[in-house]
Specification:
233 residues; binds adenosine-5'-triphosphate; six-stranded mixed sheet; transmembrane transporter activity; Rossmann fold; binds magnesium ion
């Protein structure tokens, strides 16, 4: 099934006292179940703006955006929130963990909004997810006591704990050294493969971009294939 479809998507903003600024320009993209997509682009090319649209956080200014064959515009913002919570997991460069809460509590938090799960059930699901990212021995650690790589693993466990169909990662390894970044990406890919989720990674790291099956580049808001001429870039 096609998870997401974008056709001629633009995103324009109107800064005060300035001409309209086109951040995304005619973006076409289809995301199928289980896809592995990477998007590279310079700072300011529109990557995060695109990710916010893919994650149903923002709507296009014009063009078509469909989630599972239905126009996203036809959903209320409450419905969009529900779809996002249920089907989309986000991983960011800044891990955005709740300080003062253990790894287990951080991962269990998204389950609070899923209905019908008792306290102990939530803890069991969160513990299993942490085990899957290699942190079974860190359940009760506070984020401030964890290394960057471990914090990102907690953030990944939290993003994946509700079994999303789509994982959106914006510079997930940006705050990590090369080796740690690669092992963190391996964990994301492994979980995505096991659950059949699609994975879209925005990255500056050519090694990580190269591991995706489908590679795009974004240049001043224009999305194009990065399959050819990637070596020359
Ligand atoms: N609400 C807004 N109002 C005005 N300009 C904006 C707004 N949102 C984004 N921009 C501009 O649009 C461009 C694209 O922003 P975006 O955050 O998508 O870039 P990016 O590719 O993610 O960059 P980076 O790699 O630095 O994270 C930037 O020049 C940014 O300043
Ligand atoms: Mg960005």
């Amino acid at each position: 099934m096609t998870l997401l479809r974008l056709e001629q998507v633009t995103r324009t903003v109107l800064p005060p006292d300035q001409p309209a600024l086109t951040i995304l320009d005619g973006v076409d993209l289809a995301v199928e179940e289980g896809d592995r997509i990477s998007i590279v682009g310079r700072s300011g090319s529109g990557k995060s703006t695109l990710l916010n649209i893919l994650g149903l956080l923002d709507l296009p200014t014009s063009g078509v955006l469909e989630f599972q064959d239905r126009a996203v515009r036809s959903y209320s913002s409450g419905e969009r929130d529900r779809i996002r919570g249920q089907h989309i997991g986000f991983v960011f460069q800044q891990f955005n963990l709740l300080q003062g809460r253990t790894a287990l509590e951080n991962v269990a938090t998204p389950l609070l909004y899923a209905t019908g799960r008792s306290f102990w059930r939530r803890r069991a699901i969160a513990a299993e997810m942490l085990e899957q990212v290699g942190l079974a021995h860190r359940l009760d650690s506070l984020p401030e006591r964890l290394s960057g790589g471990e914090q990102q693993r907690v953030a990944i466990a939290r993003a994946l704990v509700r079994g999303p169909r789509l994982i959106l990662a914006d510079e997930p390894t940006g705050a990590l050294d090369l080796d740690t970044g690669q092992s963190v990406m391996a964990v994301v890919e492994e979980v995505a493969t096991r659950t059949g989720a699609a994975l879209i990674v925005i990255t500056h790291d050519p090694t990580i971009a190269a591991t995706a099956r489908t590679r795009y580049r974004l240049d001043r808001g224009v999305l194009s294939s990065a399959e050819t001429g990637a070596e020359a870039a």
